[in-house]
Task: inverse folding
């Protein structure tokens, strides 16, 4: 079974621009969560989507948003990029039912803001 | 609010030696606990999980972890470390079913000496 895929793997943007990252979950998984990983703050939860609805949100400004499509694929968008948004953005998918509490992570998208 | 503490930022062990990585959590109810491993430039790979039942859980790559409620701990162990185990290890706690907002520890970087 194919794992979680994220595109693009690397991205360089300029301050003030916006960016969209994509995540395709494992087949059959309907929940997608996003995390930000930085050396200073570590791994932090951004938000979770299930059935095209945001179910949980972390403590991030409104510049960070996301959506989920009917095929469970998800995108996250960051508007008005700041230098501090440079990070590895990880997507994780899970079944979200029964024993499917564990999350499986993709390889991440490395975003560099200059 | 839930939290995870990994007291050891960096650990060095010799190949073939045993390993124990510490994890302490703070959570009011029964926690869902996970250990993930991250190799450089990679995403997170799930090593093992604890939801309920037997407090000693087995994972992939020869790892095991023991849940001790009285100590709020979930330490990861391996009897004999291989050079390929060098990576960063993250302990995480999840809330009750329906919430996928994992809280991660700051990680422990494992170095393996030949």
Result:
């Amino acid at each position: 079974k194919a794992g979680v895929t994220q595109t693009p793997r690397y991205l360089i943007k300029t301050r003030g621009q916006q960016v969209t990252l994509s995540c395709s979950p494992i087949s059959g998984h309907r929940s997608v969560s996003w995390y930000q990983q930085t050396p200073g703050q570590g791994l932090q939860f951004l938000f979770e989507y299930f059935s095209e609805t945001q179910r949980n949100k972390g403590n991030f400004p409104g510049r960070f948003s996301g959506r989920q499509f009917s095929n469970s694929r998800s995108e996250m968008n960051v508007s008005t990029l700041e230098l501090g948004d440079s990070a590895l953005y990880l997507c994780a998918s899970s079944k979200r039912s029964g024993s499917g509490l564990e999350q499986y992570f993709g390889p991440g998208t490395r975003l560099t803001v200059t | 609010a839930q939290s995870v503490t990994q007291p050891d930022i960096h650990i060095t062990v010799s190949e073939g030696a045993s390993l124990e990585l510490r994890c302490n959590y703070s959570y009011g109810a029964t926690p869902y606990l996970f250990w993930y491993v991250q190799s450089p430039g990679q995403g997170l790979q799930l090593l093992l999980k604890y939801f309920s039942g037997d407090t000693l859980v087995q994972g992939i790559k020869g790892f095991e972890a023991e849940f001790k409620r009285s100590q709020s701990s979930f330490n990861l162990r391996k009897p004999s470390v291989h050079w390929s185990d060098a990576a960063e290890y993250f302990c995480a706690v999840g809330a009750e079913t329906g919430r996928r907002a994992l809280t991660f520890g700051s990680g422990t970087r494992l170095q393996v000496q030949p």
